[in-house]
Each structure stands twice: as structure tokens, then as C-alpha cells.
Write a structure and sequence with these properties.
four-stranded antiparallel sheet, two-stranded antiparallel ribbon, 23 helices, 6 strands
Length: 460
Amino acid sequence: MRLTSLIALCLIVCLLGSAWPGTTLAQTPATQPADPSPPPETQLPTAPRDKLGTLPAVGENVEAVKTYARGEYAKAAKMLEPAYRAGRAGIQDRLILSRAYLHTDRPDDALAVLKNVLESDPENPEANSLAGQLLQKAGKNKEALKCLQHAYRLKPEAVTAGALGRCYYELGNLAKAKTYLTSALTQDIRDPSYSLLLGRIHLDRGGGALAEKYLLMAQEAGLDSKELHLLLGRAYLLQHKFTGPVLAKRLSGKVKVDDVIDGEVVLAKAPGQTGKFLVATRYCALHEGLQLLKGNKRDGDGLYMAATGCSAAGEYDRAMRHLQTMSAKDQARPEVRDLQARLLVVTKRFGELRKFLAEGKRTGGFDARVVADYLCKAAAVLRSEGKRRDAIAMLKRAEAEQPVAESVLRPLAGLYVAVGDDKRAAEYYARLVELLPDAEDIDELNNTLKVLREKTEVTK
């Protein structure tokens, strides 16, 4: 008989629980003041989510929760504030209030409410996670770390792992940052902030390919921002992906150079192919540079990436125009100066090159070694065109910058032989033998010097 009564009592309790989901037998009646620190209420079968993470279970003020769920955050906050100020709000209502404050750009008020929750329930994972996220955004990373670590131990959610990753990144612990960000990305691939920061970390460490991988994941997750295009462009520059594979493609309608059509960059009309254009695929610095220029036509990074891509595609005049559009400040950047010098060499503007290098040296942009290097490159172009005397003159300028550089003396010695000036050639070969006694071709140098001296003696 006792067993039968016990079973019947259990059935009644189960029926009551199913009739009022989201409540418990120990819940405080609505007509009585709630205890400041009530026990956690029973959660709904599937907890709803917003962009801040998993919502807490429904609290005492059901109408306020419904209002919050409709996106009326300011109204929900007003509904919950009286009970909170009177010290009667339960933990779940306080969590909803803190979230409402976050959505209405009141982070200080939200943090104050969360600290109040943690005084009542220091083991609450939501309060620890939200408080840690707020502290991290405020730059208080060491303080945030304690809350986030505790929250992650209690409830390892993606949003908490992501915040931990950002926290460790700001503190300079890149290994742990990568660990937590990878965990967050595994749990929630839809949030592009995790893959974006992972891409930045790999880029900072010189890993262009891995940076590209994660940044493209952020793009696939829906991110489209100036920061993303900037980081992707830098990842491509690091890998020397200045321009994508070039294809000839038929395009309809009005098409202009530098247009981006279906993710491909229009470079120029295809020679000898009516109606076709040369296009490059999107996975290159040129594409990202053009994306940056859409927002700002004078964006320094965008102009540099576009110029680099155009130069790689052989569009030297367009590359120079991009560089000339830059501000004086951007033109002073080392990578921009180097690109401009290279373009002056390949476009054979040697007079401009000499002036550019002299001004760069005067302002500290180029040292003597770099100046000599570009002059040697210009000399090589002149020599390839058969202009040996002009090449010698260019190398003599390089010699004035680097008088004992092998890269200067060897081509000078060879050019003097080519123009039949055996005496000068012998002088340079003698200097090479003296400066490079351990050279692999020292025997050849000595033999050439001997022959030149013999010829000079015969001439005398």
C-alpha cells in the first residue's frame, strides 16, 4: 500500500512539472518578493542564443525575457531595473539585464550587474564569461583572463574560447591564443572573428599561406571589411602572389581596366583576340588592393598592392600611376621606394632613376649598398641592349657607392674586356684577385689577368 501511494505521488509531481515548463517546485510565487540569490531555475529544453552566446534560462520576469527576445533591449532593461535596484531580481533576470545593457551600449552598467551576480553565484559560467569579455574589450586582459578561464572550465563554449584567444593574443601569448581560437573555430565556424585573428597571428609570424587559409575562412563566413582585405593583401605579398594566373576571357558589356568581374581582375585587352580581355584570378595582392581602393582611392596600402600587381603583370605604366597617386608620406615607405626604383629600371627611365636614388640617399631612404644595387641592375639592362659604354658609365656610378663590391667589379672587368680596353680590364681583374683570394674561380681570374697583362705588354 505504501509503495502504491509513493508511485501515485511521483506521477502527480511529473504531471505538474510538464504542465508548467520552465518552473520548479521551489520557485518563489510571483506575489512574494524573490530572494536576492535564488537557486538556478530549470532551463528550457533548448536554450536560445544571441550574438553574445547562449541565453540564460528564463527568470522570474517572463515578460521581460519575451521583450528581450523580440530585440527590444531598452524596454527589457526598464522592466528589469526596478527589481534589480530593490535587490529582488533573481540571477537569471540579472543576466538578462546585463545583456540588455550590452545591446544598448551600456558596458559599464552591464559589468556592474555581472559583478553583482558573481557575488551571489561565483560559479555562474555565463556571468564569468560575459564579465571576462567586457574586461577584455576594456583592455583589462589580466583581470579578464581569470573570469574567462573559470567560465571555460565550467562551460567550454565557443564564445568564451574566442574571448580567451583574444585575451592571450593581447598579452603576447600567441601559442595559447592559437589553441583557444582554434577551439572556438571548431565549435562555431560561422563566427569570422576567430579565423580573422588566427589569420593575423600567422601573418605576424611570417606564415603567409596559413594566414591566407584562415582569412579566406573569415571571408567565407560572411566577413567583408577593410581589415580583411588589408590582411589578405599582405598575406599575398608575403607569398609573392602579386597577381593571379592570367587568362584570356570573353567579357560582355562595358568593361574597363581594373574592373573586378565575377572575382576576376581585368588587366587589359587580349592582343589579337577581339572581344577578349586578359584577367587575373582574385587570389592575389592586386585584387585586394583594388578592393581597398573602392573605399578610398588614395589608400596607401591599396595603391601599393595594386602597383605591385600591375608590375608583376607587366603593366608598368599603370603601376607607376598608382605609385604617383600616393601621398608623400606613403611614398616614403621603404617597400614603396623599392618598387618605384624597380619600375624605373624596367621602364628604362635611367635619368629619373639616378635622381631618385640620389634623393633617396640624401633623405636616408637608401643606403650606399642599395643605390649601387639598383645602378648595377640598370647597367645589366643597358648591357643586354648592347649599350656597353652606357653600362660602364652606370657601373662607375655604382663603384663610387661601393668601391670594393664584387657585384660592381666583376661586370666592370667583363665590360672593359668586351669594349677592348685591356688595360682597364687588367686593373679590375687585379683588384678582384686581391679582394677574392678564396673565390671558387680564383684560378680563372688569375689566368685572365695574366693574359690581359701579356696583351698589354705586347701593345706597349
